[in-house]
Amino acid sequence: TPLIKLSPKKTVEGFVGGWVMTIVFGMLFATLFLRYPYMICPVKDLRATAFSGLTCDPNPVFIPVKHNLKPWMVSLIRHVGFRTTHVMLAPLQWHVIIMACFASLIAPFGGFFASGFKRAFKIKDFGQSIPGHGGITDRMDCQFLMGLFSYMYYQSFIKSSAMTVGFVLQSAIKLKGAEQMELFDHLKQYLIGQGLLDEESCVIMPPKEAWVS
To answer: What CA–CA distance (Å, rounded) separates 20 from 14?
Structure first.
């Protein structure tokens, strides 16, 4: 069944089937990767591999959470042989479902737009760099929408702004010398006020210009 005139080879069956299979394979890969620390732990050493024995406290997005099923869901899955009243799903798997739906239902419109653009200029392909498939743009037309959505979705719903000593130190190192001294002075006054630092134990070295050999 033709889906859209701009792309005669696109069919409704293929569109729906692609949507379902993208969710299925997305869930399969997400469930598989959750089992391996190498896929969910931050890699601090570029020489680390899947066999390096990485360990970490997983981000909450990777930790499965118990979800109780609705009564109609329980009765539905009993018809296929499953007898359970809950499922264990990590937040990552919900994110995968949402991104798979966008990749299957919305991102293809980037391809439809590209097809309309080519038809308006009476050309078949954007280029000939990939024989039989047109140019790079023909293979990447959907990726523009998907890339933008992935970035915005990650920044809005997944990224966590955890403050660490390393992150603060890395930011402080980028400051100029005078700004670092100002930061140190404010931090010193705060720690003294909290009773965590003795004022007499704080000694500030003179600047290098004042050193004498």
So the answer is: 10
Which of 25-29, 62-66, 204-208 ranks highest by mean pLDDT? 25-29
Buried/exposed code over 33-55 (b: 16+ C-beta within 10 A; e: otherwise): ebeeeeebbeeeeeeeeeeeebe
pTM of the model: 0.66
* Residues 132 and 163: beta-carbon distance below 8 Å: no
Cα separation, 43 vs 156, whole angstroms: 23
Can you count the helices (H) and strands (E) in the chain?
8, 4
pLDDT value of residue 204: 56
State how far the Cα of 94 lies from the Cα of 89, in Å rounded to an integer.
8
- Give the number of other CB atoms < 10 A from CB of residue 115: 19
